[in-house]
UniProtKB/TrEMBL annotation:
SUPFAM superfamilies: Radical SAM enzymes. Coiled coil: none annotated. GO terms for molecular function: 4 iron, 4 sulfur cluster binding; lyase activity; metal ion binding. The keyword Transferase does not apply. The gene is MYN1_Chr_331. This is Queuosine Biosynthesis QueE Radical SAM. Gene3D superfamilies: Aldolase class I. Keywords: 4Fe-4S, Iron, Iron-sulfur, Lyase, Magnesium, Metal-binding, Plastid, S-adenosyl-L-methionine. InterPro entries: 7-CO-7-deazaguanine_synth-like, Aldolase_TIM, rSAM, rSAM_sf. It holds the Pfam family Radical_SAM. The keyword Iron applies. PANTHER family: 7-CARBOXY-7-DEAZAGUANINE SYNTHASE. Residues 21-206 form the Radical SAM core domain.
Length: 206
């Protein structure tokens, strides 16, 4: 059965602040619901699914088309953990806009929907599905402490022999000076890795 509604926390048109597409105009769709429970999550307000948050796919697609007319170059589906929901129908409907569709995910659930770009941000305490590691275009590991660097090394080992390995990003935990230092030092010594800063937060925009 087609599911024509999804729980949405917010939609907004901003610049992609993180990873390989940093600085590009994007329309964000933030789905509600996450059970991964990262202690440092900057989006804890997206964890609960309120009864008032359910919106029709038609309504979401309409907003994406308005954003496209205002300059959005692609759509970012994020959350919460967007893959807690089936994204098949949403992607199918959004495809009418012809905008590329990007996904931000922790990768704990099976992949649903069709994407032009997948950002996997794997979590140490709940490792991602191998199918998502294989399908993703970039991996974004969040750095708070030394153990996170060991986790990044394990990702390097896993992806090294992929036919087309993903781009590799370290992103310091927001407001964690120790995390910035660890990430900069690691990238300096590991040229396959890039630094991702949450540029939207530095700029004070969404
Ligand atoms: C809020 S999550 C939503 C998508 C999905 N649940 C995930 O974790 O990838 C979006 C991105 O923000 C990152 N993130 C969350 N809290 C952060 C923080 N305090 N500092 C840096 N990055 C953070 C996540 O790792 C993820 O890459
Ligand atoms: N500007 C901006 N860029 C982002 N990239 C990923 C985000 C997210 O929360 O998933 C995000 C976000 O919340 N804002
Ligand atoms: S998986 Fe993403 S949304 Fe969920 S708690 Fe972790 S960072 Fe937050
Ligand atoms: Mg964010």
């Amino acid at each position: 059965m087609n599911k024509l509604i999804l729980p949405i926390v917010e939609t907004f048109h901003s610049l992609q602040g993180e990873g390989a597409h940093t600085g590009r105009s994007a329309f964000f769709i933030r789905l509600a619901g996450c059970s991964v429970a990262c202690s440092w999550c900057d989006t804890k307000y997206s964890w609960p699914i309120s009864t008032k948050s359910w919106r029709s796919l038609d309504n979401i697609v309409y907003e994406a088309i308005v954003a496209q007319q205002e300059g959005a170059a692609f759509i970012v589906i994020t959350g919460g953990e967007p893959l807690h929901h089936s994204l098949k129908d949403l992607c199918h409907r959004l495809a009418y806009s012809k905008l590329p569709i990007h996904l931000e995910t922790s990768g704990v659930d099976p992949l649903t929907g069709k994407f032009d770009w997948i950002t996997l941000s794997p979590k140490r305490h709940k490792p991602p599905k191998l199918e998502i590691l294989r399908a993703c275009n970039e991996v974004k590991v969040i750095i708070h402490e030394t153990t996170d660097l060991l986790f990044a090394n394990s990702i390097t080992r896993l992806t090294n022999d992929f036919v087309s390995p993903p781009l590799l990003y370290l992103q310091p935990g927001w407001d964690n000076i120790g995390g910035y230092k660890l990430a900069v030092d690691f990238v300096r010594r590991n040229p396959n890795w890039h630094l991702s800063l949450q540029t939207h937060k530095w700029l004070g925009v969404r």
